[in-house]
Write a structure and sequence with these properties.
single chain; 323 residues; alpha/beta; globular
Length: 323
């Protein structure tokens, strides 16, 4: 590749010594040579800082800068990295996620061919605590209106042009769960974004991860974004023109996370509201989750729920065997 712009990769971490080495290796073993790696540790007490110090001191280390100190959360940590980054292309990889081989090289190739692109995103693998594949998250060719309707893209598969990040601004520290989606919205307002039908990364799902342990928080952040749409001069007009579609999207998104968080009754109500605003929002792939939310709070449906879950498990197991 003749044009090899510098790529800045930031890894925020806090007490993730169990997963951090795999994330680190997935960055430093990339076949793209022009990478500056920045690790921002939040003052871990599990030995993470010793690992980072060892890596930084190694010969030919790709770590440009690192720190281990108390911060105000994930957004603050990543923003520290952004402020140190000098690459033409910027991204972050959480300490429990992984890059696929050649991910950086592929991303650079695509961004280098189209200067109008501010952001690209790939499909993302889902892995468990033992790095076993558990799901494949495929996305569509989405633009600003699709993102406003809460079509969510996987953060590990995103690469941004530095110019787009500078225009949109860094992460908003007031968001703790949808901080990435809030940033994508601001970038998509000013720049083209593109889906890449490939797999740049794997997102890890485990008991300590936010998307598992604090699922209901994603619902709260989603409705904060709706309030922001209503009051933002840049988004209020778009929101007014697509109100029903956006509200159907936010209630569907909220229902998913409320269900994951164990609040079946509220999840069921949000699914109904999503259906009210846009009947087609409860599509075929979503219907099984809607049934889970329904069976979860009906006292007389415990046996029905058990039978349904067993059939669903058998179906998923068979699907895995067929792959």
């Amino acid at each position: 590749m003749e044009n090899q712009p510098l790529v800045s990769i930031i890894t925020p971490s806090y007490n993730q010594a169990k997963y951090l080495p795999a994330a680190y290796q997935s960055v430093v073993t990339q076949n793209y040579p022009n990478i500056e790696y920045i690790i921002v540790d939040g003052g871990s007490t599990d030995g993470s800082d010793d690992l980072i110090r060892k890596w930084a001191a190694s010969r030919n280390s790709r770590i440009k800068w690192w720190v281990s100190e108390k911060d105000s959360g994930q957004a603050d940590a990543i923003n520290k990295g952004f402020s140190r980054a000098t690459g033409e292309i910027v991204t972050w990889l959480n300490s429990d996620d992984l890059y696929m081989k050649s991910a950086v090289e592929k991303a650079v190739s695509i961004l280098s061919k189209d200067e109008k692109l501010g952001l690209i995103y790939s499909n993302v693998f889902s892995i468990d605590a033992e790095s076993q594949l558990i799901n494949v998250m495929r996305y569509g060719e989405w633009g600003l209106c699709d993102l406003m309707a809460f079509n969510i893209i996987g953060q590990p598969g995103v690469f941004m042009r530095r110019e787009a990040l500078a225009k949109a601004g860094f992460l908003d520290p007031d968001y703790h769960y949808l901080l990435d989606h809030h940033l994508w919205l601001r970038i998509a307002k000013y720049f083209d974004i593109r889906h890449v039908d490939d797999y740049f990364a794997a997102a890890r799902f485990h008991l300590e991860a936010k998307n598992t342990a604090q699922a209901a928080g994603f619902s709260r952040d989603a409705f904060r974004i709706i309030d922001w749409f209503k009051t933002s001069p840049e988004f209020s007009g778009i929101f007014a023109g697509s109100r029903k579609n956006i509200l159907a999207g936010v209630f569907r998104f909220s229902a998913r996370y409320l269900l994951d968080g164990g609040d079946n009754f509220k999840s069921f109500k949000h699914y109904l509201k999503s259906f009210w605003y846009k009947p087609s929002s409860i599509h075929k792939e979503e219907f099984s989750r809607f049934l889970y939310s329904l069976f979860g709070f009906l006292p007389l449906a415990k046996r029905m729920k058990a039978d349904f879950l067993q059939k669903r498990l058998n179906h998923l197991t068979q699907d895995k065997m067929d792959e």
